Amino acid sequence: MDRTHLDGHQNFYWLMVGLALVLLWAIVRPFWSALFLAAVLAGVFSGLQARLARQLWGRTGLAAGLLTLLVLLAIVLPFGSIVGLLAKQVIQVINSLKTVLQENGISGLVHRLPGPVQEIAQHAIDAAGGPDWVKMIQSQSGKAAVAASKFLSATSRAVVDAVLMLIAFYFLLVDGRRLVEWLEEVTPLPAERFRTFLVEFRDVSHAVLVSTVGTGAVQSVVALVGYLIAGVPNALLFGLVTFFMSFVPTFGAGSVPVVLSLVLFFQGRTGWGVFLVLWGFLAVGLIDNVVKPFFIKGGVEMPGAVIFFALLGGLAAFGPVGLVAGPLVVAFFVAVSRASVAAPREAS
Q: Are residues 252 and 154 in the same domain?
């Protein structure tokens, strides 16, 4: 076979590979985020599923079903409830602001603030442009309400994705081993290097998800206890804010109780304000040093700044699912790098 025919065959082969990838992406694209999260969770829970199956006399399907129920009760339903509560609170605030602005103007809104804050708010309004700025705020209130309604309409899609994720999670736990063996056959990488990559990605993903998300969850629960004790309004909403702030380097979860303590000071509740400051520094802030080493357990910890920008980039690229996908993309890069270094070392 001459060189021309060989080049033609290679070009045709790569054309078919490209076409296959495009068609595969067209199939996976509508629910890729659900499959992605299911695959990551299945990797994290695979060890627990194997141990549980042994305890159940080898009933792999039953063990997978119990873990799927656990994910539903411990992750999906609580997170969905929190998002629903957040959406409800946002809409209530927008509608309340819109009503006050329509009936009493910006002055009515300012008068509802605590006494020490009213003067500061009035100076800020004057510095921002006075009446012209107020008219602009009023004209934008309708757009804010429309944006909130769109946010609510997106919840139906989130419910569908959650159901698909749970179904995929179950089948990946049941048939995960056979899927890995099939990927070994169809992937052009050597079997040893492919398995090395899977192990590295599982370990790094476990460290990112469990240590970062788990630590943030523990901090938000501890903060929520403090909010309930101090009588902070909308304590669940601020507990969610604390969870997201736990990903922000420098400030962290402890900054939210400190900010809320200022509100209590303005309301004249000095004692509870001091309590929240101490609770933020001693309970919320220091528990990070206690729980994070427990969650990592020999894994790879990423710097806080890397996780923060991975979250921002993930949100910009993938939407809400980017809160998980962003750090895992970085974890994927780390896993590929470590696997590429480990494979030559094993070969030697």
A: no
pTM above 0.85, yes or no: no
Within this chain, do residues 200 and 129 fall inside the same structural domain, yes or no?
Answer: no
Q: Is residue 301 part of a domain?
A: yes
Last residue of a domain, one of 158, 186, 214: 186
Cα separations in angstroms, 216 against 176, 193, 232, 309: 29, 34, 20, 16
Is 165:37 a contact under the CB 8 Å cutoff?
Answer: yes
Q: Is the Cβ–Cβ distance between 254 and 284 less than 8 Å?
A: yes
Tokens of 210: 């469990």
Amino acid residing at 207: A
The H or E element that residue 189 is part of is none
Same domain, 82 and 42: yes
Token pair, residue 230, equals: 């101090």
The domain boundary residue, chosen from 144, 169, 186 = 186
Look at residue 18 and tell me if it is in a domain. no
Mean of per-residue pLDDT scores for the chain? 74
**Residue corresponding to tokens 């303005």:** 266
51 within some domain: yes
User: Cα torsion for 76, 235, 152, 218, to the nearest 10°?
Assistant: -30
Report the candidate in 213, 210, 276, 274 with the shortest Cα–Cα distance to residue 246. 213
At 298, phi and psi to the nearest 5? 85, 0
Q: In whole angstroms, what is the distance from residue 202 CA to residue 177 CA?
A: 14
What distances in angstroms separate CA 120 from CA 111, 112, 123, 125, one per listed residue?
12, 13, 5, 9
And the tokens for 307? 């996780």
173 and 252 co-located in one domain: no
* 212 vs 204: CA distance, rounded Å: 12
Query: Residue 329 belongs to what domain range?
Result: 189-348
Q: Is residue 94 domain-resident?
A: yes
pLDDT in tens, 275-328: 998 998 888 888 877 777 676 655 555 666 677 777 777 777 766 666 667 777
